[in-house]
Amino acid sequence: MADILLVNPLFLRDDPVESKLMTPFFPLGILYVAATARSAGYDVAIFDAMFAESDDEFVAALEKEQPAIVGFGVLATVRRAALRLAALAKHRGAIVLMGGADPTARPDVYLQHDVAGAPVVDVVVVGESEAIIPQLLPVLLEDGPASDRLAAVPGVAFRDGTGIVMQTERCALLEDVDAVPLPARDLVDFTPYREAWRRKHGVFTLSLIATRGCPFNCAWCQKIVFGRSFRPRAPERVAEEMRQLKTQYHPDFLRIVDDAMGIQKSWVRRWRDAVLEKDAVIPFECLSRVDLLDEEVIQWLKEAGCRRIAVGAESGSQKVLDAMTKGTKVEQIYRTAELCRRLGVETYFYMMVGYPGEAWEDLQLSVKMLRETRPDTFSTTIAYPLPGTPFFEQVKDRLPEGDGLVPDWDYTAENKLLFGRDHYSTYFYRRVIRWFHHEWQDAWIRAGQPVPLAARLKNTVALWRDRIAVTALARLSGSRATGFPTGGNV
Ligand code: B12
């Protein structure tokens, strides 16, 4: 029996991209909520849909735990699954709670969702939840209608007695992020995660967050939970958590999920010292920005175990970076790639296409940049407008009419164009993404990467097919598509 059942509603089997990638992470957000609720004295259980076969397993968990409250941690791609499971929980008389980035950005969508006229979600927790949970749970567990009492809880949205959606003032961000208990990983069965990771990649990877927030300004980034803050944990405590992970879970690799590593240079050095001192090194990857990575920072990260740094390169066109208010320079992307290569740390570039204002010439500059910098890996996303971002505001008049909701993916990294774009279509951008990939592969081959002859030929054929296709599509769309970028290796 549990007071609260917390749910990760991501079914791998329903997400073709995630099942192909097979890089499952149990969401840290839910583990922080679980730890906070537990330290406030509540019994907490977890239902993890990640490897579940069907909703029946969720129903069995409801029957076993008989929870008074069922809480879901939700990202945009799993909204439908969360609402589907929520209806099952509601049907069995539970109070339904939602939290995470997507409900925070659009609480009304959740609170107004109904099945046969009956609402499914009772309360949305808006934003960072650790200060809210200890105030909210007693209110929900008390008998009688909760709406008057909810009005006194900060950072929640709910329906009042007449069905109107109300939202209380947001709760202040935590000042002392070290006061928060460590994520309750002991509530999750990591066995299938370990097996899935090792089977596909040979390395079992866990995640950890060291600092909360990011003060930068990328126009497409949804900073709805942590705001434009920067709140580092004490480096020694992060090292201590790594040490614990190492001894209890034996991960082969770690993903540090901070928005941007290196915002405070002195923090990185102290963290490196603490990790070495506590013998807590676990090979890891992290996310950073090209304007934060100088030689010293990369070296310290490497000494702390860093094997790969992912950066939002986004585009090879300064015009596009400026349109995104990214605050970085194309030259810095080149310098980062060169520094990482020299210091022996892999690079992963996040690229974006289809951002408003991007033209054919800008796509060519991205190809040139990918060819000349040759990151070790990269992925490309068609720009998607997330509610609460300046990018969303910019294109909101061009969003498709749908079920009254904002545009959505059906699954992770589905890569479809979600807003009306002057010339180009989803098909065009998907072609561009393949083109990027074949150009990048060609650049590696020309740089001397040992590739069997058959694979070289295959890539050359695919490359020319893509070049012809994207140029033809660009011309059909009315742009002056001429020639191909001439990067150093072309
Ligand atoms: C690591 C990460 C990933 C990883 C791992 C995700 C995971 N399962 O852990 C990977 C690479 C898989 C990933 C994928 C995607 N991600 Co992602 N990701 C992140 C990142 C960088 C960190 C997430 C994290 O662990 N945060 C730390 C925890 C502690 O914060 P939190 O989850 O927000 O939790 C707090 C509150 O939200 C709340 N809360 C959370 N859950 C619950 C539940 C309840 C009941 C309650 C009451 C409260 C609550 O309390 C927590 C503590 O305060 C965030 C950015 C960020 N800073 O959060 C983006 C972010 C969450 N991702 C985002 C996106 C867009 C995606 C993708 C959709 C991208 C894509 N198109 O492929 C996919 C979706 C994957 C999926 N199917 O779930 C967006 C969210 C957009 C949205 N509205 O849903 C974010 C915010 C990035 C951004 N700034 O734009 N992601």
Commentary on this structure:
The protein is built from 18 helices and 17 strands. The protein has helices at residues 16-21, 28-39, 55-65, 79-91, 101-105, 107-111, 133-141, 147-150, 191-201, 235-248, 265-277, 295-304, 318-323, 330-343, 360-373, 390-395, 426-446, 453-476; strands spanning 4-8, 44-48, 69-73, 95-99, 114-115, 118-119, 123-125, 156-159, 165-167, 205-208, 211-212, 231-232, 253-261, 284-288, 306-314, 346-353, 377-382. Helix 10 packs parallel to helix 11 and helix 15 runs parallel beside helix 17. The chain is globular, with a radius of gyration of 24 Å. Strand 16 (346-353), helix 15 and strand 17 form a beta-alpha-beta unit. The protein folds into 2 domains: 4-167, 3-Layer(aba) Sandwich (Rossmann fold), CATH 3.40.50.280; 203-476, pyruvate-formate lyase- activating enzyme (Alpha-Beta Horseshoe). It has a 7-stranded mixed β-sheet with strand order 2-1-3-4-7-8-9, with helices on both faces. Strands 10-13-14-15-16-17 form a 6-stranded parallel β-sheet. The model is unreliable at 484-490 (pLDDT under 50). The longest helix has 24 residues, at 453-476. It is of the alpha/beta class. Cobalamin binds next to helix 2, strand 3, strand 4, helix 5 and strand 13.
Helical amount: 40-55%
Kindly report the CATH topology of the largest domain. pyruvate-formate lyase- activating enzyme
How many runs of DSSP E, i.e. beta strands?
17
Tell me which ligands are bound: cobalamin
Tell me the fraction of residues in β-strands, as a range.
15-25%
Please state the overall shape, judged from the principal axes of the Cα atoms: globular
Could you give the distance between the termini?
Answer: 64 Å
| Overall pLDDT | 93
Assigned CATH architecture of the largest domain:
Alpha-Beta Horseshoe
CATH class descriptor name of the largest domain: Alpha Beta
Q: In the CATH hierarchy, what is the superfamily of the largest domain?
A: tm_1862 like domain
Report the major sheet.
7 strands, mixed
Count of helix runs: 18
- In terms of structural class, how would the helical and strand content be classed? alpha/beta
Number of domains: 2
* Gyration radius from CA atoms, angstroms: 24 Å
Output the strand order for the largest sheet: 2-1-3-4-7-8-9
